[in-house]
Recover the amino acids of this structure.
């Protein structure tokens, strides 16, 4: 790389025959050349580069057509098209002291005026006096002339580079600058002219580099974006990640077509291939089919985690085949050497995996359990042995609630729980932690445990991601719930709660999983009671928690779970926020049946679309406000005190609907229950039209308030409908 | 290329890059990083370039000579350059070419691998270098050593000599490597693997090892405490020795999960004090290597170096 400082020079008479001086806009190209970046850092860095470039240009009043980014492990590139050659000029106004303060009796400027003027950088005489609604005030008016874009860019680009931040950064030279990996060259061109910016101890030029081995050692000179792309292409680099992605997908598709295999699609691996290569080249390799005796999850994981290989499946049987796809970052005429190298490495990896698998099966899970006492769950929360016992207790309680056949289910859940963490001590899980549970299920099966027990152990970590697959068996659901409930409650108990974006123990993900398993599995359980049980088990294990009562602790937990319910309701069922709130608000301290709460929300959501709903809520809220605000004796409604037919009509309607509604609610037919409320609308409206609640006669007033209280109770028995937002409500 | 030729080739190549061809340190250690030529020389402002093979002991990796890849004793080839040259990746790739690995014919990748040694209070960022999918080198820009932030930055290149030799000789079992024309790796090391695996896993006297760990730790502390005597280098040796004893105890299963971090912290604390003391002593000596011309071309001193002596992190 030439570090020689290139003098800024006029744009070459480009093809379109334009010169920088004669046009209003030009192209900006910035390339940060680096040593291989961690692949996960690249996409976020490019997004940040784009955002902050747009922001900075806007702040600097430099117009542009478009900003885009390109990137590989060795370069982060910014392209701004149609970037204005000059900042927009701007008139800046600032209001100062009032005229009376600014001038003394002789009309001479006071210290307030001179201070304001010098603060604004204008002479006192230049200050203007203007009429404002507050009276006459001093104003400083300055015109800021737009500066040429290249001058501004020379200030801006180093900041842009410095602003890029990474999850982990390092120093490498005497400037002490930090970046994810060393920056080795910079290209900065505006309108074809080099901008000799300095960053990380490097002066930008017009010289870039191609692919490490496909390009030539000296690199090449860039004139503009077009020549940049062409040059890179010639030197083995596809700078656009989207294009690399398509290239890889096409190469894989060709291999699959030729061989008849199906790709085991993996978005992470594809990302990894896209962002670890400049010149992707997918090749197929194979391994000894004898390894197919090992569970395919182990093989797939080993290929992925150790080598970054894609696995391939037989189209008909959907079973793994003894082949893999590697994406190399080189293009050699004969790829045999590279393929063989990769095959040899994989063979050693699979031999290791098979060795672990064979060794693991020599010891029963049951015999590993006692060693869990040596595995820490968390410093503040003891060992995995303790956790496993707690999970077992909760699983037993859950089993009784979720199924009528608990005589069968309970022993299955308890047995599965008693073995569930033992696979943490196996060689395969030691090597591949992400196979926990899967290996437990495999080994349980090998040990001769029942199918139900093996499956439950296998499914205990499902869902593995926010939207991941759920446990299919009831015992699996129970085990997963018990495990997560224990984790969330235990960490809350010792005060390790998520804050902001920090959630080191993935408690939010656990809570989301709890919500999904309950709702999507339609499990009618008393979550509130289970939270109390879980907490007591943690306390029984002797872990000192933060000082709060059972009720406070339950509230914090339910609020945490509700936060997930809200999110789930919004995203999955597209429920209105006020509908969700109306149902959740009164649910806090009751037995928590999430399935029931969701049914209420859905019924309420669906009734909100009826035309009479909003006016109904307006009427309800009027009565709700009255009974909340007013003081009265709360005596039962006295029919003899009705003065107006509208009063007795409302009373009658309420009484009738109450019975129907209660029986509908008991059946769980919330739609019908709400229809009952809707039917009250005419009576409520007629009441408010006909009578004055706050009558002069105190007895009359009390009676009317008591009547409204009946109406209110009826509405509130469904949900806190005062949370519903309506126009005019 | 025989195993010994590989080391000779690297010697030759890095000698030309103005490295001191150092010798292995004569203590048991878990990695070439423990060698004072890396651990201590990375500290402070003085430039430094060295290359050396280092036998490494990792008792828990022993497999009684039955595993084709894993051993409790193997050889790293270590290169350290301070300050890290701008073209260091190129220099490294050229060294591979010297070994007969033409980067143009292979898929050579720099895959993120951030290095940390809790025992040494050290960390750095870098890569594992993969040759057609096989890890052959660790490449690290040190950021802290002994808990001390570095300036200038040292780059460390650690070649996995057996891996590379296996690749070059196309053998799948490390013991089949040709050490020279007539002697194999098996001839030299198979019996050591069998005997040391047995000792490390089964026979080590835990009480003796424990007591020795403690006396080495005590000795290190005693030497450090007696500041006037200036015995930092012997103190550091006892730190290295206690680290190896910890590894032996670990292999014997004598250290529980809960205790592990405690032991590591004890060694780290020794390493940190040695590092601090070394920096003070080099400063007191006036940093003898600071303006020394190195080799033919000379590792030139960069302008700002003297400004900041490594500050505490």
């Amino acid at each position: 790389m030439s570090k020689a400082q290139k003098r800024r020079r006029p744009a070459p008479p480009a093809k379109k025959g334009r010169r920088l001086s004669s046009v209003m806009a030009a192209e900006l190209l910035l390339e940060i050349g680096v040593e291989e970046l961690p692949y996960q850092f690249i996409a976020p860095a490019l997004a940040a580069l784009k955002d902050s470039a747009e922001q900075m240009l806007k702040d600097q009043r430099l117009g542009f057509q478009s900003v885009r980014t390109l990137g590989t492990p060795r370069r982060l590139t910014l392209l701004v098209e149609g970037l204005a050659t000059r900042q927009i000029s701007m008139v800046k106004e600032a209001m100062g002291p009032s005229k009376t303060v600014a001038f003394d009796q002789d009309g001479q400027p006071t210290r307030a005026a001179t201070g304001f003027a010098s603060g604004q950088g204008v002479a006192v005489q230049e200050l203007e006096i203007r009429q404002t609604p507050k009276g006459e005030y001093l104003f400083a008016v300055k015109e800021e002339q737009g500066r040429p874009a290249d001058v501004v860019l020379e200030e801006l680009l180093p900041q842009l580079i410095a602003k890029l931040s990474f999850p982990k950064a390092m120093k490498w030279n005497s400037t002490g600058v930090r970046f994810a990996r060393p920056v080795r060259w910079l290209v900065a061109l505006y309108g074809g002219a080099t901008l000799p910016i300095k960053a990380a101890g490097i002066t930008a030029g017009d010289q870039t580099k191609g692919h490490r081995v496909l390009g030539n050692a000296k690199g090449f000179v860039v004139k503009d974006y077009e020549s940049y792309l062409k040059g890179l292409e010639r030197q083995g680099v596809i700078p656009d990640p989207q294009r690399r992605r398509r290239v890889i997908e096409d190469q894989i598709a060709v291999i699959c077509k030729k061989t008849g295999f199906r790709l085991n699609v993996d978005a992470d691996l594809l990302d990894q291939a896209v962002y670890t290569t400049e010149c992707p080249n997918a090749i197929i390799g194979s391994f000894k089919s004898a390894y197919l005796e090992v569970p395919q999850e182990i093989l797939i994981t080993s290929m992925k985690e150790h080598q970054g290989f894609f696995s391939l499946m037989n189209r008909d049987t959907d079973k793994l085949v003894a082949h893999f796809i590697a994406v190399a970052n080189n293009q050699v005429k004969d790829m045999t050497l590279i393929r063989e190298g990769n095959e040899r490495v994989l063979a050693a990896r699979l031999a290791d995996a098979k060795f672990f698998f064979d060794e693991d099966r020599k010891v029963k899970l049951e015999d590993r359990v006692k060693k869990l006492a040596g595995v820490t769950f968390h410093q503040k929360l003891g060992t995995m042995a303790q956790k496993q016992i707690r999970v077992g207790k909760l699983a037993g309680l859950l089993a009784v609630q979720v199924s009528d056949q608990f005589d069968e289910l309970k022993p299955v859940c308890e047995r599965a729980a008693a073995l569930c963490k033992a696979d943490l001590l196996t060689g395969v899980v030691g090597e591949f932690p992400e196979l926990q549970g899967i290996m437990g299920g495999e080994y349980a099966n090998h040990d001769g445990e029942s199918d139900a027990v093996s499956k439950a152990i296998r499914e205990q970590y499902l869902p593995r991601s926010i939207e991941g697959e759920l446990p299919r068996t009831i015992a699996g659901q129970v085990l997963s719930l018990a495990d997560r409930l224990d984790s969330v409650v235990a960490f809350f108990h010792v005060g390790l709660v998520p804050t902001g974006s920090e959630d080191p123990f993935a408690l939010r993900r656990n809570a989301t999983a709890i919500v999904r398993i309950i709702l999507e599995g339609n499990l009618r359980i008393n979550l509130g009671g289970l939270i109390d049980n879980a907490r007591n088990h943690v306390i029984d294990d002797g872990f000192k928690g933060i000082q709060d009562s059972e009720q406070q602790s339950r509230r914090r937990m339910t609020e945490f779970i509700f936060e997930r319910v809200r999110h789930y309701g919004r995203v999955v069922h597209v429920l209105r926020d006020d509908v969700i709130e109306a149902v959740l608000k009164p649910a806090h301290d009751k037995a928590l049946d999430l399935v029931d709460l969701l049914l209420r929300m859905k019924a309420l959501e669906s009734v909100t679309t009826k035309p009479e709903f909003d006016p109904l809520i307006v009427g309800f809220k009027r009565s709700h406000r009255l009974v909340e605000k007013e003081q009265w004796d709360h005596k039962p409604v006295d029919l003899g005190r009705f003065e107006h037919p509208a009063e007795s009509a409302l009373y009658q309607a309420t009484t009738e609907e109450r019975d129907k509604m209660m029986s509908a609610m008991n059946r769980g037919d919330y739609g019908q229950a709400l229809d009952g409320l809707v039917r009250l609308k005419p009576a409520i409206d007629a009441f408010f039209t006909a009578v004055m609640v706050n009558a002069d006669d105190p007895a009359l007033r009390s009676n009317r308030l008591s009547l409204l209280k009946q109406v209110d109770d009826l509405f509130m028995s469904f949900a806190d409908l005062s949370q519903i937002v309506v126009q005019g409500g | 290329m025989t195993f010994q030729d590989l080391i000779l080739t690297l010697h030759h190549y890095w000698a030309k890059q103005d490295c001191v061809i150092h010798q292995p340190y004569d203590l048991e250690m878990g990695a070439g990083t423990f060698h004072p030529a890396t651990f201590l020389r990375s500290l402070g402002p003085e430039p430094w370039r060295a290359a050396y093979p280092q036998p490494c002991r990792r008792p828990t990796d022993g497999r009684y000579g039955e595993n084709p890849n894993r051993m409790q004793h193997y050889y790293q080839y270590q290169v350290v350059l301070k300050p890290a040259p701008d073209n260091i990746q190129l220099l490294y790739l050229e060294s591979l070419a010297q070994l007969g690995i033409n980067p143009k014919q292979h898929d050579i990748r720099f895959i993120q691998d951030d290095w940390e040694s809790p025992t040494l209070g050290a960390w750095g960022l870098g890569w594992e270098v993969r040759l057609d999918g096989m890890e052959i080198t660790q490449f690290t820009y040190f950021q802290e050593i002994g808990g001390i932030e570095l300036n200038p930055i040292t780059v460390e290149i650690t070649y996995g000599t057996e891996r590379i030799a296996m690749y070059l000789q196309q053998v799948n079992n490390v013991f089949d490597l040709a050490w020279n024309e007539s002697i194999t790796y098996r001839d030299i090391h198979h019996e050591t693997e069998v005997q040391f695996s047995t000792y490390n896993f089964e026979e080590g006297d835990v009480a003796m090892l424990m007591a020795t760990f403690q006396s080495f730790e005590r000795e290190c502390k005693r030497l450090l405490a007696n500041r006037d005597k200036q015995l930092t280098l012997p103190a550091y040796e006892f730190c290295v020795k206690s680290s190896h004893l910890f590894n032996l105890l670990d292999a014997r299963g004598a250290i529980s999960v809960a205790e592990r971090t405690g032991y590591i912290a004890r060694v780290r604390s020794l390493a940190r004090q040695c590092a601090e003391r070394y920096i003070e002593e080099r400063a007191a000596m006036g940093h003898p290597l600071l303006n020394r011309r190195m080799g033919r071309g000379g590792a030139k001193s960069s302008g700002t170096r003297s400004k900041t002596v490594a500050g505490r992190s």
Q: What stands out?
A: The interface with chain B takes residues 35-39, 73, 168-174, 176, 180-182, 184, 212-213, 276, 307, 326, 328-330, 332, 337-338, 340-342, 344-348, 351, 374-376 of chain A (CB under 8 Å).
